[in-house]
Write a structure and sequence with these properties.
Beta Polymerase, domain 2; Rossmann fold; 19 helices; 10 strands
Length: 435
């Protein structure tokens, strides 16, 4: 049984999501260790969502409730967030709904900005991390691999990817109302990760040319050399920040890297520049915080002449009515989810079908040997027996797949056990699960 516990911008506050974004890497192993019936777990944590995908041992009574409890307890244990703080902030999907939800997430249909592309890579990295920790299961592997396939199909056959905008692009579109000439802006980029590269490319698309970069982790020179912009050393960070008209932060730092102290001149510097102490060199500065957790101290917004645009503000101002997923994209996701379910159901009945066919073939070989011993020299009896066995196998096999597609594979297994005393071999069940 598959289960998904999800907290996103649709269910949880920005403050809670920020706390969940600090989730340690050991949450998935903690979930798996919570109960013997937990078969595997994959955790997807991004700036706008926290999701735990869990496979439960389905025969266990109340497996769904046990799975949700394991996730909540693991989050509380790993992050220190009380379970009470999570009440009402998450949704639960189970069974068939899990695949459609993850496929929608991977395709960007559930993002703040519908169709944003960053989430696809985050989904792949979540699976990779679970593999590294040894917390995946055959069904979770299949689920996440099919999610990536669904995402690629949505991208290739619909206009969603072309119409969707990333958070970076949306943030800069919101900044447009404050910026008359992008080429005149003095831009400071704080951060050198994947978001920084996307941000830089988007800035250049809009015409920005005066761009420098600072890295709290010391990677500014490498990033600057690669992208032909100016690196800012640590000792010049505050001065550069104070003189910049547009500052964009996008680091993975867990504490703020930009505060009021960076945007206000120290006494010596202010006097040398001929500026009043505590006043920026420009009458207006725009700070865009794309970090999760926050890269910018909220107190920056209280400075005179400084405007702060953070992810919460971006979410509130996102023109979602213009960014709704196309019907085609939703159809692709639903079709992929249905295929996932049908294939999974057929795989679940495969061990029973294999056991049934093996039983029939064993009887067949026994009767063929007996016919040969009685003088079936021309092989006509053997040919007739093989044809008869094929006929006998056909209808039960077709019916088994029909039952499986309807979620009734257990009925076929029960019939075999009742009529023939047949039970699938344990290794056959395992092989079918990994297929």
């Amino acid at each position: 049984m598959l289960l998904c516990v999800t907290a996103s911008h649709k269910t949880a506050s920005f403050e809670l999501l920020e706390r969940l974004s600090r989730t340690p890497d050991d949450v998935a192993p903690t979930i798996v260790g919570m109960a013997p019936c937990v078969q595997g777990a994959v955790v997807l944590a991004t700036c706008n969502r926290f999701e735990a995908y869990v496979e439960m041992d389905e025969p266990v009574t109340a497996a769904g409730a046990i799975g949700v409890e394991a996730v909540i307890e693991a989050v509380e244990s790993a992050t220190g967030i009380p379970a009470a703080d999570l009440d009402g902030a998450y949704a639960v999907h189970s069974g068939r709904r899990v695949a459609e939800h993850l496929f929608s997430v991977a395709s960007g249909l559930e993002s703040v900005v519908s169709g944003e592309g960053e989430i696809a890579g985050q989904v792949r990295r979540a699976l990779k991390s679970a593999r590294k920790d040894g917390t995946t299961s055959p069904e979770l592997e299949r689920l996440f691999q099919r999610a990536s396939q669904a995402q690629r199909k949505v991208k290739n056959v619909t206009a969603l990817g072309r119409a969707g905008r990333s958070l970076v692009r949306l943030a800069l579109e919101l900044a447009d109302s404050r910026i008359a000439d992008w080429s005149a802006e003095r831009v400071l980029l704080v951060g050198t990760g994947a978001y920084a590269a996307v941000t830089l490319a988007t800035l250049r698309e809009r015409g920005a040319v005066d761009i420098s970069v600072y890295s709290p982790s010391g990677r500014a020179e490498i990033f600057a050399a690669k992208h032909d912009i100016r690196p800012v050393p640590a000792e010049e960070y505050a001065r550069t920040a104070a003189h910049s008209s547009l500052l964009i932060t996008c680091t993975t730092a867990t504490e703020p890297v930009l505060g009021p102290e960076h945007l206000q001149h120290p006494v010596g510097l202010a006097a040398a520049a001929g500026c009043p102490v505590g006043v920026p060199t420009r009458a207006s500065q725009l700070v865009v915080d794309l970090g999760m957790p926050r890269n910018v101290d909220p107190a920056v917004a209280s400075l005179e002449g400084v405007a702060l645009l953070d992810l919460e503000t971006i979410r509130l101002h996102a023109p979602l009515e213009e960014l709704q997923a196309t019907d085609a994209a939703r159809s692709v996701v639903r079709e992929a989810a249905e295929t996932f379910h049908v294939v999974g159901a057929r795989q679940s009945v495969t061990p029973s079908v294999v056991a049934f066919r093996s039983h029939i073939f064993e009887l067949l070989e026994r009767e063929i040997a007996r016919a040969r011993s009685r003088g079936d020299e021309d092989g006509k009896v053997e040919q007739a027996l093989r044809h008869l066995s094929g006929v006998l196998l056909h209808t039960p096999t077709v019916r088994a797949h029909e039952l499986a597609a309807a979620g009734r594979a257990d009925e076929f297994a029960a019939a075999l056990a009742t009529l023939y005393g047949i039970a699938p071999a344990a290794d056959s069940v395992e092989d079918a699960a990994t297929a």
